[in-house]
Amino acid sequence: MRYLLTALALTAPFFVAQASVAESLDAGQREILSAEAGAMAIYEDARLEIAKAKASGAPRLHLSTLKWPKFKNLLVIPHEISTLENLQVLYLTGTGVSDLAPLAGLTQLKGLYLTKTQVSDLAPLANLTQLDTLWLTETQVSDLTPLANLTQLEMLSLTKTQVSDLAPLANLTQLTMLDLTEIPASDFSTLEPLVQSGLMVIK
């Protein structure tokens, strides 16, 4: 059920928001004002987890497990994640996120797990050249062009995506595992040199 929110759900009890409060919210908070009850609470929980990771210097961050009663999961990646310059592994599996823009500057990221998210645009990942593991299983991704220069990629899952053109993967010579289960692509000739070099392709 959708609600016209007159209150914001935080990790603490609900409070009544003044009409002018929207002007003081960050972009992520404004985006979820009209979402299901609990969206703001999960967003604030995500910000808290990011703050903890920032303080501890932890190289891994799990945002996949954030839940709220009667609500699914995180919808928007808090912009604060951009401050985790040394983050190496990020789990967003099963969240409702679609916009990866906050990740664009995380150049030390090595593992990114986006299975069962609403992601379709990979452009923000184009400069994450340290990525060696990328899971895009059951997303809306169709264009792999932003991955063309991610030459450190070793493991890539495209299971149940909308990918039909595999040409952008031609120069990813470090790939050792590529999962293409249930994708619309029919021309796999681009991958032949990689297979000859040891790439394992799962179809």
Automatic annotation (TrEMBL):
The keyword Repeat applies. InterPro entries: Leu-rich_rpt_4, LRR_dom_sf, SDS22/Internalin_LRR. Keywords: Leucine-rich repeat, Repeat. Pfam families: LRR_4. This is Leucine-rich repeat domain-containing protein. It comes from hydrothermal vent metagenome. The lineage of its organism: unclassified sequences, metagenomes, ecological metagenomes.
